[in-house]
Amino acid sequence: MRAGESLLEEDDTWSSNPLFLTNREAALSDLGQRQVVEACRYLKREGIDVTQGRYSLAASCADTADIVVEQLKLGRDRVVPEFTYLDGRGVGAWDFASLNKTQEAVWAMDVDEAGISGRGGRPPENDDGTPAETLGEQVTRLQNCISLLETLYTGDTILLIFPDGTGPALLSCCIGGIPLSRVHEFNYDSGEIRYDINYDSINALAAEPPSQDYLDIIQRGREELAELRRNPDALRNKKDLKFEEEQEKERLVLEARQLEDAKRNQEERIRQEHGGDKREEEEKRKVEERQRSGGEDGGPVNPAVVAFAAIAGGAGVAMSGSGGDDESPVGVSTADNESTAEEMDISPVAVNGNSRQPEEDEVTRLGVSGVVNGMLTNGDMEDSSENMTATGGTAFNEEEYMADVQVEDAMESFEIEDYDEAWLGSITDILEETEVDANK
């Protein structure tokens, strides 16, 4: 029996290296499994009772043996591996080449060169350890296998499972005495099984003329053989081709990844450049808006600054009115002072600087000196005082003192309600002037 179709045969690959036979890439294909199941059904229909079994170590043969054991209900100890005698023929440098093309060339070589004993027709040598064998060398292994079986078993029906179709055909030729050059006329197909092989049955097959398909194969094989010998590199090892294909795929994937990275980097660079341009445009727009609104100096005035300016302004008026003993306290005529006093509802005496002793409750309620002193001595006025010289600082202290006295006298001369209204009016005037300057 020949094992079912393997995955390598399905892939059109001829593998004959003994070291590679156990690889799972040489296991049964789905079609091969169905072929083996059908062969077991044939044995059941024919009533053939298999009692012993031997199979090659090739992966396809091991899978076939498992199916046979299951289908025929045999004990596992009755179907055992045969380590070397059932191995297929090594094809040397043609190993792992295209099965269809190489097999036809080998068949043609055997027909034309093998001879009766199969001593001729050797494939080219290989440097990877794959044997380059003739049909005669494979026959030697088969003879050893038959000798062993005759010693171990007597009266048993033995099922031999081969990894290729040439091994069982060679055994048939040996039994029937058929020239080995005709061995491929008896070649087995994948999953094929033959029963009761003997001298008569083999010679009956040999008496039939070869089929036209077989003759066509031999003719094509001669042409393929001539081409292989003329150009040994024309038939490439499929392992090498597969490796080169995988290398090419990896190279393409790497190039695609590099192109993708370059594209992503380019997009990121463009995005950053556009982002910088946008930031520059935004900054430019902000500068233009500040310029249109008067810039930093002409922009809107902080309310806190306005309030402080109002208080400081009031203090400045009082200070300017106490320049010395020979001058008018407020630097204006008495008539103007009286007019201003009437508008602000302030006593003329207070405006002219004529002091009087304030009542204790008024001083307590007003606390003007403390307010003015606080404003004149807070952190906002320190920058100006630090820039003054020693002489100027002394004069400023005297003016500050006089301002305190004048403000106290002025504030004591009118009611608190009038003071609030006058103060609010001063702040309003300052705000209006500030807005006019900002609009300009």
TrEMBL record:
Gene3D superfamilies: Phosphoglycerate mutase-like. Pfam families: His_Phos_1 (PF00300). Residues 262-302, 319-361 are annotated as: Disordered. Residues 262-295 have a biased composition (Basic and acidic residues). Coiled coil: none annotated. InterPro entries: His_Pase_superF_clade-1, His_PPase_superfam. This is Uncharacterized protein.
